[in-house]
Amino acid sequence: MKLFNILFPMIISIRAAIASLIAEASTQNLEFKTCVVNPGGNSSIDDAPAIIDAFTQCGHNGKILFLNETYHVNTVLNTTGLKNCEVDLRGTLLILQSSAWVFGGDNINFQGHGYGTLNGSGQAWYTFIHGKSNYPGRPHAITIANTTNSVFEGIKFVQSQMWTMTVIHSKNVLLQDIYVNNAGNDGTTSSNTDGANTIFSDHITFKRWDITNGDDSIAFKANSTNIRVLDSTFHNGLGIAFGSIGQYKGEFNTIENIRVKNITCYNTLHGAYVKTWTGQQVGYPPNGGGGGLGFMKDILLSDFTLNNLRGIPFSISQCTTFSGVAGACNTSLFEIEDLTFENVAGTIGTNPIASLQCSAAAPCKNITLQNIDLALRNGTAASGYNCDAVFGSIGFNCTGFTCGTSSATGSC
């Protein structure tokens, strides 16, 4: 009887475990399936419904396969709420200028193999807006929303209509081996074609990005925390951006624990720059605003190689505007502290090395600029650190004052 009392619970436990394993295997075999998206074959056929249907059928415990062909996406794609989903993009999604893709879920593996492409057909927008930045109605190529524990790899983006990628309300996402080329045809300016932006997102990693564009290479906006940008190359844009932030009156936002390492820039305006709105609201978003609160701290930018930089390697402007009209440049209450820019080499077009226009109402604290080895195009050593309201300069001495004027790009 004692032996039975010992063995009986063990037998029940083993049987339950075996039943659980059988049920799990059965569920996996039954639920995991592949949906192949077949293109319509010409621009008059909108492939968006077929794409959405594939995600509806296989977006949970399944795989969506795009063939090595061209898909014409003529209407907005919304494929959110995915779970345990693989996306195999082997062809090109040709997205007309009036459409975009909202994408998200948990445990997603999105593979582009280095050639799977989202083509935004952005030239029509570039021509239409004539260089104007925040023109209403321009879509983002892809918005990664409410996404967790996911990987996006080997995807190409060509001529995005506006921002290429927006990562919002997301956490634990890896984005690596991504190629972006938003250059306009015949020298057309492709303004506001950011490579990527983070908003209300945490633990996001960008690795091995190659970006050619006409605006921020990668930007960290409101409530971006624990972000990494590694081993990436930027062409022609504005460089790494913090902000803009502080645009919405009374709102409290943060940018914290950012690490950017091993970056190569070619003909960008900056290596990195910070842009906050003033403490006075002037107009309304998207081109007006101001009066936002919050802080930015614990920032490390290291190992930058700058090639033929167009402007100032590192800039802080707390007088951002996109309308040409700004509040007083010394009124921002958004706090900037513990920011380091180090191990920087290369060639730049003009002095100074840094322009730090901080707000007198909330001075910048503990700014470190060290191990800077830069030369002008004529071979002479770069020099100069212009500062307003900087408390705690580490590794450099302020040599003058900034121009103190409003800016959208961190330049005078």
Automatic annotation (TrEMBL):
Statement: the UniProt record of this protein carries the keyword Cell wall biogenesis/degradation: yes
Record-level GO cellular component terms: extracellular region
Gene Ontology terms, MF aspect: polygalacturonase activity
GO BP annotations, alphabetical order: carbohydrate metabolic process; cell wall organization
InterPro entries: Glyco_hydro_28, Pectin_lyas_fold, Pectin_lyase_fold/virulence
Entry-linked SUPFAM superfamilies: Pectin lyase-like
Alphabetized Gene3D superfamilies for the sequence: Single-stranded right-handed beta-helix, Pectin lyase-like (2.160.20.10)
Location(s) in or outside the cell: Secreted
Signal sequence residues: 1-27
Principal localisation: secreted
UniProt KW keywords: Cell wall biogenesis/degradation, Glycoprotein, Glycosidase, Hydrolase, Secreted, Signal
Pfam annotation, one family: Glyco_hydro_28
Record-stated family: Belongs to the glycosyl hydrolase 28 family.
Name under which the protein is recorded: Alpha-L-rhamnosidase
